[in-house]
Amino acid sequence: MKEKIDKNKIVLTVCLVAIIVAATFIIVLFTLSAQNTEKNSKNYLTTNTIISRVIKKMNYENLSKISDENISKYYNIPDGVVTDSAMYISNRADIGMELACFRLSSENSEKILMDSVSQYLSSKDTENKEGSGQLANIKMDTVYPYVFVAIASDSESASSAFKEIINSQ
Questions:
Q1: What is the distance between the alpha carbons of residues 32 and 34, in angstroms, rounded to a whole number?
Q2: pLDDT, tens digit, for every residue of 41-92?
Q3: Who's near 25: CB < 8 A, 6+ residues apart?
Q4: What pLDDT sits at residue 108?
């Protein structure tokens, strides 16, 4: 009888130790996963931060931020294609400068976004045949997961500033 009680105590002790080891393993696993997720999400700049830095680096003035809700009045982007977007336009109609930045939700979304950007630029070209000539100075660049669009007389330099900002992160 005493042997049976000792066996039961041993089995119970082994089970408790196994439960404690498993619980500790799960807690450590969740903690590491949470730290990885937090670390990865910190690597992404907001699109507004990117454009703000481009504006500062390029010494642009007289640009107004388009609210997130109103970007859809310019770009017709299907839901789920981007996770973040920002757009600034010139306060002066004679300058016609625009900067936009989008963070893609996935690599598969790039073509869909580029189609939307091209459609917008095409409609803008139709509306502004006699405009400021800025449409000849369009530069689109992708540094995954970001897509940058610049309509400016120095769009090539703005695009270079964009790449510098992304690559310095």
A1: 5
A2: 557 899 999 999 999 999 999 999 999 899 999 999 999 999 999 999 998 8
A3: none
A4: 93
**pTM of the predicted model as reported, rounded to 2 decimal places:** 0.71
- Torsion angle of C-alpha atoms 163, 69, 115, 64, degrees rounded to 10: -50
Specify the 3-state DSSP secondary structure of 169.
coil
Question: What does pLDDT average to over the chain?
Answer: 85
C-alpha span between 148 and 162 (Å, rounded): 7
Higher pLDDT pick, 60 / 11: 60
Which two structure tokens, joined as six digits, stand for 29?
A: 């696993």
Element (H, E) at 31: helix 2-42
Residue whose C-alpha is closest to residue 136's, from 148, 122, 153: 153
The CA distance from 121 to 13, in Å, is: 71
Integer Cα distance of 58 and 157 in angstroms = 8
Instruction: Classify residue 20 as exposed, middle or buried by CB count within 10 Å of its CB (0-12, 13-18, 19+).
Output: exposed
